[in-house]
Structures are given as C-alpha cells and as structure tokens.
Design a protein that fits this description.
By secondary structure, this protein is mainly α. The protein has a domain of 179 residues. The chain has 19 helices and no strands. The longest helix is centred in the C-terminal third of the chain and has 33 residues. The two termini are 31 Å apart.
C-alpha cells in the first residue's frame, strides 16, 4: 500500500498521475488560502515576530538605527543582514504581510519535508527504504512538535532550518569534494542568525579547510553588505552597531540578559544556559514568563557559571566525538559516497541541536530543528543495526519533550516544566541518541 501511494506518481498511468497532481494542487491551494487567512487573524492579536523583522527592514532601507534596545517593546537583535530579506515585505500593505510570510514559511517547510523524504527513501547497502508511513510517524512524533510555533509566532526559524536542509544536501555529496556548497549555505545562515557559525566545527574536525574559509568569507561579506546596499544615515557600520548593542554584554557561560530585550530567568529561553540559570540562581527580575519556584538550589553566579561552562563543553565534546565517528566511518567504507550520504544527516542533526543548546537565547520556535535528529533517528531505528539504547533514548526524548507540552499536561504544569527546561533536556536526549547512532551505526 505504501509503495502504491508513494510510487504512483512515477509508475502509474497518465490519468492517475493527473488525478494525483490535481489533488496535490487542491491541497496546496487550500493550505495557502486557509493558512493565510488563519494566521492573518492571529497576527491581529499582536505579540508576533514578523513586525519586528519588517520594522528592521524598513529602518535599514531608510538608513535609520535598527538596534533600539530599550526603546522598542520588541527590539531587533539579529545581525544586520537578517533585515535585508524583509525590506521587500515593508513594501506590502500591513494586512498582507502575515499572509505573505505564511506562504514563505509553508514552502520552506515543504522543501525541508522533500529533502527528508528523499533521505528516507534512499537505498542503503543493498537494502530498500523503510516504510515511509512509519518513517514519518516517528519523525513527527519526535520532532514535529515545535513546527507549529514558527507559524503561530511568525518567526524566521524555518528560514534557518531550510538553510540547514540545504547544508545537508550539499554535505551529503561532499565525500570527494570539500563541502564548499554546504559551507555557502552555512555562511548565509550565520549572517542571518550567527549561531550557524557553530558548523565551522564540522568542517574543521573533518579537515575541510576550504569549506571553513568559505563559511567565514560568506558570513563576512553578507554581514558587511548592508553597509553597501543601505548605508546608515550617520555613516557608521551596521555590523559594528550589532556587536556594540547586542553582543558586548554576553559572557562565556552566561545567558541572554539585557534590559529591554531578554530576561535571564524567562522560561521561554530553553537554551542550556537559560535552563541552568533558572535551576541554579534565584530570579533577580520578575516578569510574565518567570517562575520563581523553578530554582532547585542556589549555586550563586560563580557556581552556576561553572556548571554552565561544563555543560557547554560537554555538548561540544559530543559534537566533536560524533563527527570523528562519522569521519572514521566514511574512511573505512568501501563506498565513501554512500557512507557520506548515510552519516551526513546525523552530523547536521547534532550541530543543529548544538546551535539551540549553546545559543544564549533559544525560544520554543527555534526547536523546529528537531525535525533533523528525528528524521535521522527514525531512519536508523527502522533499518539500522539494532541498538538497545537507541530506542529508550528516543522514547525518553518524546516523553520529556512533546508528551510534556502544555496541550497535554495543562497550562500551569506545562509552564512549570518549561521553567525546569523540559525542551532543553529533550534536545539533549535527541543529541545523545543521534551521537549514539553515529558511533554504532557504521
């Protein structure tokens, strides 16, 4: 049955292909109309991210200051290149912007799905693909929970996820090349959100020196391009302003904390540093998203920083170990191309987990990247070598994460779990499961 459903487009009669194409078009058109209308109505309630991006694009095009922390209710805090894609949005009527952004996000998600579908359907070492129904059920159960947050919050996290998918496509073909195409996509992502710079570690551990240079070059060129395209009225540098306003106060082992931008104890921040700050220091500033009962023990600022740095180093150690295992597998394989395609998604998965864990600020919508470790694990669990530890880790990630959401356990208990970092710990479990699979699935 699954084969009939997934293969009919290519192997069925012309009439059947036409019917399926017509049905697909109707589904697409219905999603465009219904989704655009729904999220346009939600946007009217306020507290969404799109107006922040569009505001940044408007001010950038006018040469006005875009970094006004403390002056704006929700300030623009991203690198200056992140405002460039939203300059065209500023030309649209306000009422049209949510619908247009929904259409962009929908197609980004569709592209990611197609990339993961192609990965799941590939042949591996003479073995056919798993049943795609099972593949997608596992992927959605493990990794689909926070995709809806991107649409409801109108955030740009699917843009970063889409660039991660393109990075995977380029990296999967890089067994004999240098991974330059993958590096280009990483550089673009880094210019939009900075955290994809972590992928430098992937290229360095795999000795892809040219790819590492390309990442830095692409990031640098794109970050300085707004100075050429949209010069500041005061003649200064957008990139320097971003560093001065948003990065100067960040410390190693610290979390995002700045008046008018981030509350260090907000349970909306599910990064590793954010969760450990709530667990081991008392809330200094109260707010709508602060639960003072979240603290387990007061370690003080120094003790919390030590624990946080140790946790961050452990994450970096896991990433390094995973990439080394993947490199050894590729070198030892009879077909380096085939093995590279096999391990590439796992490597991308561990680094996107590292991005959200090591970032000073990771909101729930950022965790739409769970799709990558979830798809990799679904593929490995359905047709990889048997591993008694892999399934328990995946089940634990599902229980701690999606099963403990507010829609399941209720708003009050769900917020308490968020304050204790259940999204953070679910990501750690997904990371551990992916690292385990890379080490044992050669």
């Amino acid at each position: 049955m699954t084969r009939a459903i997934t293969g009919s487009v290519t192997s069925g009669s012309p009439r059947r292909r036409f019917v399926l194409a017509a049905l697909a078009f109707l589904v697409w058109a219905g999603a465009m109309w219904g989704g655009s209308a729904y999220f346009t109505r939600r946007a009217a309630k306020g507290d969404r991210e799109l107006p922040v991006y569009v505001m940044g694009g408007e001010r950038l095009a006018a040469g006005e200051e875009i970094y006004r922390r403390g002056a704006d209710a929700k300030p623009f805090t991203y690198p200056p290149f992140a405002a460039v894609p939203f300059v065209p949005f500023s030309w649209l009527p306000r009422d049209w912007q949510p619908a247009a952004w929904f259409v962009v996000n929908f197609h980004l998600l569709l592209g990611i799905v197609l990339v993961l579908q192609r990965h799941g359907r590939r042949r591996l070492e003479g073995r056919g693909p798993p049943r795609m129904v099972g593949f997608w059920l596992l992927t959605l159960f493990l990794g689909g929970h926070h995709v809806a947050s991107v649409f409801s919050n109108q955030s740009h996290d699917l843009l970063i996820a889409g660039l991660a998918a393109l990075t995977f496509v380029g990296w999967a073909r890089a067994a004999r090349g240098g991974g330059v195409l993958a590096a280009v996509w990483v550089g673009i992502g880094a210019a939009i959100k900075a955290t994809p710079l972590l992928f430098l570690g992937l290229f360095l551990v795999r000795y892809r020196w040219l790819a590492a240079v390309v990442v830095v070059a692409a990031f640098g060129l794109l970050s300085w391009s707004p100075d050429l395209l949209f010069p500041r009225a005061d003649g200064g540098s957008w990139f320097k302003a971003w560093i001065d306003v948003n990065l100067r106060g960040l410390e190693v082992g610290g979390t995002a904390s700045a008046a008018g931008a981030w509350n260090a104890h907000s349970y909306l921040n599910q990064s590793l540093s954010g969760t450990l700050t709530r667990l081991f220091t008392p809330a200094a500033v109260t707010g709508a998203f602060v639960d003072e009962s979240a603290m387990l023990i007061d370690l003080g600022a120094t003790g919390c920083k030590i624990v946080t740095v140790a946790g961050q180093l452990a994450v970096l150690g896991l990433l390094t170990g995973a990439v080394r295992s993947a490199r050894q597998a590729v070198l030892a394989a009879e077909s380096a191309d085939s093995m590279q395609r096999t391990v590439a998604l796992g490597e991308i998965a561990v680094f996107v987990c590292g991005m959200v864990l090591l970032s000073p600020q990771s909101s729930k919508a950022h965790f739409c990247i769970w799709l990558f470790p979830a798809a990799y694990l679904a593929d490995r669990m359905l047709r990889g070598p048997r591993d008694r530890l892999l399934w328990p880790l995946a089940i634990a990630a599902f229980v701690v994460g999606p099963l403990m959401s507010k829609g399941v356990v209720g708003r009050e208990f769900g917020n308490l779990l968020l304050a204790r970092g259940n999204v953070t710990w679910a990501t750690v479990l997904l990371l551990l499961a992916t690292v385990r699979s890379l080490r044992t699935g050669r």
